Hints:
Number of strands: 12
CATH topology of the largest domain: Four Helix Bundle (Hemerythrin (Met), subunit A)
Number of helices: 9
Structural class: alpha/beta
CATH class of the largest domain: Mainly Alpha
Number of domains: 2
Shape: globular
Largest sheet: 4 strands, mixed
CATH architecture of the largest domain: Up-down Bundle
Oligomer: single chain
Amino acid sequence: MRRLRNVIYVTTPEAWLRKDGANLVLEVEGTERARAPLHVLEGVVTFCHAGLSPALLAACAEAGIAVSLLDPNGRFQARVEGPRSGNVLLRRAQYRCADDAAAQGAIVRGIVTAKAANQRTVLLRALRDHGADQPSQVRERLEEAARHLADVARRCLTANDVALLRGLEGEAAAAYFAVFAALIRAKEAAFGFAGRSRRPPLDRVNALLSFCYALLGHDCRAALEAHGLDSQVGFLHADRPGRAGLALDLMEELRPVLADRLVLSLINRGQLRAADFVVEEAGGVRLTDDARRAVVMAWQERKREELRHPFLGESVPLGLLAHVQAQLLARHLRGDLDGYPGFVWK
């Protein structure tokens, strides 16, 4: 099993990152604030205009440490990486699969089925843990949405057409987010949620979802490239210049497990309050610098939690799920597995 390595998240605008021997050093206004050996890192992510020395960038590229530059809202800006890893034959198999409707559909089926099933699990866990505290109308809505998601997952199992599967994925997302507000138990009216909004997020819940999805996106892209896959060429998401389609594919089945549950925990436990967000004049909402740091710390803690992987039958840290699924996808593309086993959360 691959060892879980660390990702450095930088949220301080005045930060400067440099190389010192075999270490990454973070300085703020000339004072060293943090230091980490390069061999324990798998990624560096900045959410500000932090500077990085050329020597550090070269060392990261040589060591296979991906460096991602995001804006303060978590939107991707750029990525620095070294020579591609993995076998060229694997990537050729990936491209052939992306051009083969039947092979493509089989992989998309696994992804969408797992996503719908995992969204259902989020609802069922909320009903199990807090259903007794909910008004009967709310419980009924959650139960109906869970049944709808189970039906979508069943229909996915017999679907082969990618367009149909994309439609089912959209249907599942609509059913899930239609009741997402019922999962938020915070008393503050500021945490109201009327549906997904992006670029920019228009409320605090959407701002937090988008930020966590950005964290997950980096991890998924790094995992795919670590296993020799081309993160740009996806199966569920159509090719588009500048879009990491396969990373978005991999994110879909992991969003409910890693990101959505974390968002709900941070809000429901009172770890984030209305004052932790900035409402901009144009209407967009973003996290404050301190709130981003708090979310990143919670994200790293969440990744250390373990669960039993249903396909492997062994305990896996949540932070390695993207690597496990990337490896399983690579094995399927090489012909070692008959199908791609999407991750279904129990």
